[in-house]
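Predict the holo structure. Ligand: adenosine-5'-triphosphate.
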Amino acid sequence: MAAVEVRGLRKSYGKTTALDDVSFEVADGEFFCLLGPSGAGKTTTLKTLAGLVEPDAGEVLIDQTPSNDVEPTHRGLAMCFESYALYPQLDVYGNLASPLRSPLFRLPASEVDAKVRAVAGMLGIDGLLERPVTRLSNGQRQRVALGRVLVRPARAYLLDEPLAHLDAKIRASMRAELKTISRDAGTTTVYVTHDYVEALSLADRIGVIRDGRILQSGTPEEVWARPVDAFVAQAFGKPRMTLIEGGLTEDGFVSGDGVLRVPVPAVSAAPGDAVQIGVRPRDLRLRLGAEEPGAGWTAVDGRVYVLEHLGRATEVTVAVGDARLSVVAPRAAVAGLAADDRVSLLIRPSTVHVFATGDEGKRVST
Ligand SMILES: Nc1ncnc2c1ncn2[C@@H]1O[C@H](COP(=O)(O)OP(=O)(O)OP(=O)(O)O)[C@@H](O)[C@H]1O
């Protein structure tokens, strides 16, 4: 396996800037997820790494060796696209075996057979080996396409939304499978996704990309606990982090309309500065009955704005003046609540994130 790195990648298509100074490093054996919304530049980054797109500027390094001029087939990288191209005239076995029959590898038939069967077993398609690929479901086709990548000996695997077309249950089991495979085999993987759950559960490190720029690279814990800006903060978690505009005072934060007041952790901004705070629904608690807040918690009074049942849990949105804060509570615990009821929320200042104002307001809580 190999370390891969991109430095200062830029790529434009006419007036569209696909990559705007993209840099990151993936260590040997590391699982790196590139997470971002549609059009962020994820596929372009992967194709540039693979050598299928030539950057306008910047460098691709494989094991510290500048590789921009190395032909795609000689980079030793195996890439899987979301659109899974299979040979329609071949069965599953033939599709899995064909990459190994390339002159690049020249493996003996017995070795090809062993590899095909091992990968098919791992992906749960060993019962389909003789089936023509034209008679597979989309989910099965996607597993064959992933198998065609994993069967190849490679210095690193580049995977573009490889689980996108699987139903939720298979996706979860394949996710676990992929994690085990990459950990056990020590594979270097660059994995593209727009699904934050996938990124948090698979990655050793995550690069959050938007508009062709990497906003933050870090471990799942780092990007979750210390998002560098408001966009990254909202990229993780469902319900999303609530953001509220206002300003700093001597005592903490006050919302724009002066109704919501909460203490905040240490900040690199001064009283009077306009900021926004971010609070994750899971960091809030609904105060039920006359419960005392407890050490470290502050109570904020409001009214129920809307209740949304999510199975056994309920998302309660509470209006505190003009601000709306979401909290998730067990459904049974909020059974008696209705819109407009008075409620209190409990907030722990240590879990309040403070950002400069705006969509990509930078983190100011330290
Ligand atoms: N060959 C191309 N010609 C013109 N524009 C392109 C081309 N490839 C990508 N783009 C543009 O570059 C930007 C980044 O595209 P890219 O496919 O890398 O995004 P992405 O993050 O992979 O998105 P998605 O999740 O939707 O696949 C987009 O605005 C896209 O329209």
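The helical segments are 42-50, 92-97, 109-122, 138-150, 168-185, 196-202, 220-225, 230-235. The first strand starts at residue 4 and ends at 13.
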